[in-house]
Predict the structure.
Amino acid sequence: MALILGIESSCDETAAAVVRDGRHVISNVVATQHELHERYSGVVPEIASRAHLERILPVIQESLRTASLDLSDIDGIAVGHEPGLIGSLLVGLGAAKALAWSISRPLVGVNHVHAHLWSPCLDGEPITFPALGLVASGGHTALYLMRDPVDMSMIGSTIDDAVGEAFDKAATILEAGYPGGPAIESLASGGHEKALKLPVARLGDNLNFSYSGLKTALLYAVRGRPEGRGKAVTYPRAVSELSSQERSDAAASFQAAAIAALIRNINRALDQHEVTCLLAGGGVTANSSLRRELAKICQSHDRPLRLAEPAYCVDNAAMIAGLGGALLETGMQHDMDLAAAARVAR
Amino acid sequence: MTHVVPAVLAMEVSQRTGGVALRCPDGSIMVERLTSSTRRGDALMPAVESLLKEANVSPASLSGVGVSSGPGGFTGLRIGIAAAKMLGWALEIPVVSVPTALIAAEADTVAQPVFAVALAGKDDTCWLSLVEGEPGHRSLLDGPDGGRLVEADAFHAAVAGATCLLADEHLPDAMAGHALPCRPPDFDPRSLLEITERFLAEGNVVDPLELLPIYPRDPEAVRLWDAREQ
């Protein structure tokens, strides 16, 4: 029975968790920073880094307290070290290295996106590989072929905005609030998804995604074609001129188009690859409409759907500890020179 | 019978140059100088690990840790502070936080009644600290953070009482032209170690939960946002 302490600080959540044997979550503590970034309608990296440094120790202490464990009970330290905001990653990584060294336990660095793919098996059954994996979040939109915990190949990804980033921008356009995902879902609940004809990007036969066109199409549909350029740009209409039904219709149309792009490529991937199931994680997979559509496409392909529990859709350290435990089980571990990386080569 | 000295670790990674120093149980000091941590990889914990291994000192036998609190480079400061928090908590040892200006002044062995130390220069401002006292007993004159943000037009008046200025290449041009002898600072981890030991003896320690760097300014994105909103 291996107890792994996971640490996550890749973006705007400071998190720590204890997971047993890669799947059983003993504690899961997340300190969100949404209130610090709301004013800016997006994450400000330097604010995020400062907040991580303030919160990292209390969060780790709370994860052990709620697990009724001492630090000496921990068998290994897992840390999300790539990809993410570099200043934020460095806080968690610096803490993890010092902890692992202090208590003479193995350290393992975990890819944050791969950890999202692992999140559906938290508090659930083991994964039977090979599997198809979807990560849909504010920073990542990608499909993976997962052969085992170590061997995960990206087979498609966004070429511009992540789907969660598009939700944030749509929320800004519609003045729906922050974070954008829940705000758009709430606003869309009373809307008609065919009210606006919004594009689903077609990028040929590959499995890539694009969301920048959808975002622009929404902006023009809501506020009209712009005049002028740069700071002098003006729009014929303000969002305040829309009725509440029109705002809901716009949100519902955007959400449907964003989800349709995901489903189309999952459908292709399930046609192309022999997999046992579809795993889906990341903040956007908490969206109820997406969860329904994922269930339908899996049913049509007769493949089980493994969705992350809502608590594990957002950035969290349980997924880091879970995958970290699985990696340690394979014999992988890292030295003190483990580095943070903002981006990861495909 | 051999006298065993408490093993103390000092980590200065707030600037482009710094390093790690260890007071060994035999009383000697071991030092590993480092260039700044980069965003691609930090050298702090590898240096700590190798230094203690070479000294045959286990993590559990450390009796205190000191860290520079800046101001300085964000990357190095975060790595150093995050590590010090964890070492203090995990090893249950006291943590000392030392403003970088004091380390620079202590590393300068020339006797001076009052040092002015200018750090983190940017946009015609710098973080200015005044330090007094003899070598080995130097202390900061200004408040708990040991300094204040000074603008160029107030700089000359602010350093009027000093007899020497320690300033790096980031000192704004608008602050040049002062009459003080000026030297580049040395961020010597050995100096941090000696201050750490002095602070430990005085009980001048910080709760790891409260340990944070000195930030002279709000984040640049916030300042730009505020300027746009005004």
Remarks:
- Residues 74-91 of chain B form the longest helix (18 residues).
- The interface with chain A takes residues 39-46, 48-49, 59, 74-75, 78-87, 89-91, 208-209, 212-213, 215, 219-222, 225 of chain B (CB under 8 Å).
- Chain B has six helices and eleven strands.
- The mean pLDDT of chain B is 91.
